[in-house]
Amino acid sequence: MTGMRERFYDLVREALDEDDRVAVVTAQIGNDAIGGHSRHFDVGIREQLMIGVAAGLALEGYRSVAHSYTPFLVERPWEFLKLDLGHNDLGAVLVSTGASYDAARSGRTHQAPEDVALVAALPGWTIHVPGHPHELESLFRRSLAGDDRVYIRMSEEENHARVDGGGFTVLRHGSPAAPIVVAVGPTLRPVLEATPDRDLSVAYLATVRPFPHDAVRDALGTGTDVVLVEPYQAGTSAAEIAVALRDRPHRLLALGVPNAEFRRYGTGAEHRAAHGLDSAGIARSLAEFLP
Amino acid sequence: MATTTTLGYEDLPELLRRLTGDEKHDRSSFSTLDVLWVLYDRVLGEEDRFLLSKGHGPAAFYAVLAAKGIVPVETLDGFGSFDSMLGYHPDRKLAPGVELSSGSLGHGLGVAVGSALTGRRVWCLVGDGELDEGSNWEAVQYAGRIGLGTLTAVVVDNDSAWLGWPEGIERRFMLEGWIALRVDGRDHEALEAALRPDLEGRRPRCIVAEVGAR
Fold this sequence. Notes:
Oligomer: heterodimer
Number of helices of chain B: 8
Number of domains of chain B: 1
Strand order of the largest sheet of chain A: 2-1-3-4-6-5-10
Largest sheet of chain B: 5 strands, parallel
Distance between the termini of chain A: 40 Å
Helix content of chain A: 25-40%
Structural class of chain B: alpha/beta
Shape of chain B: globular
């Protein structure tokens, strides 16, 4: 099956051919895969310029798409996201590849599990975390149709099947007071593997900003326990859970990539296991947290 | 780009006197006055875009916009106040005629490149001190290499770059493929001649407007 990154390049080429409003900016990464087009601008290894150019194109009415590896799309030019796009109220669709520990062998320089937290710290961004290439397709097409600021986090990790509906979807209903596990993007697969026999609800979340406060609150029913499983920095949406349940006693376990220098290479699977985000790790955490 | 003249160059000092409170940026603000006046009075057309990257000290910018009837003159009095549309750094969502929110240095040229890539004629004003920011050079390199002839960078040189520019600012731009020249930043005829668009241009232009240190 085609992964998210390959599917994205297909989608970008189609969008450039079909929609005169679309303009794409890259900084070497993805340049060859997208290929030549009069509205594809590769600015070389100049990531601050990539965001500035995306803003300038938006200023002229184009629907800008900017794409690079996560640290170079979000972290290096973060102030340009804040000002060129955000403060100037210009829209763009930013699509990253190389999520969290996808580039485990490349070390810390190519890992950015902080990406969603950084983008979420800026006002007015929609953030999608697709868990399957088919979800990426629908979310990307929907994003192109708008004029707002969107961040789409692609990953090599993906779930075994797509979840239709987008946003927040309750996939398994426990008893009325059962705990709820909110699985973000590609964490759904290990979450389902870790929870076959437990009385709990499992919800899938692919659009993390704006956060679906009311839906999470409703899905918890009369329960009190929430487990949030994120494929990036642990607790990125913990404050949003607190907002959703602000007037209700509750307990929250936030699983994700720890906020620590993790000096290991290896594979994504090894990193996932080390962070307790594989099915065995999630099962262990649930056993410790839930009664 | 509205250019209906309601007040003249000779009215600018009085307009500037109404903009009080940001004196720490006086040097920066007054350095741009003549360039801005010539751009708005003689150069910019209806379809052209002007981006003030050097958002520090925008008093001269606001005075010119007021003189041209783009912002109401009376708004100058509230400069920087809570309800004012005119702050110490311009906000395009608040003030008419402001096409780029700026203040943090090194952002305008990149946006200008994106705008100019669409065929729009764009003038972007930066300061010689602002050129210390490395992000400018990403834009300078790219625009020069691709021959972005719709882009003009106006560098107001008031000798404020911390370590200077050995061999001159123009040389840095020319090395990257730009046309670059230096003019007297207070000479309106020289500025007009340099700033007028080159409709057949195949290379970006850098106009260094020398105003001297104050």
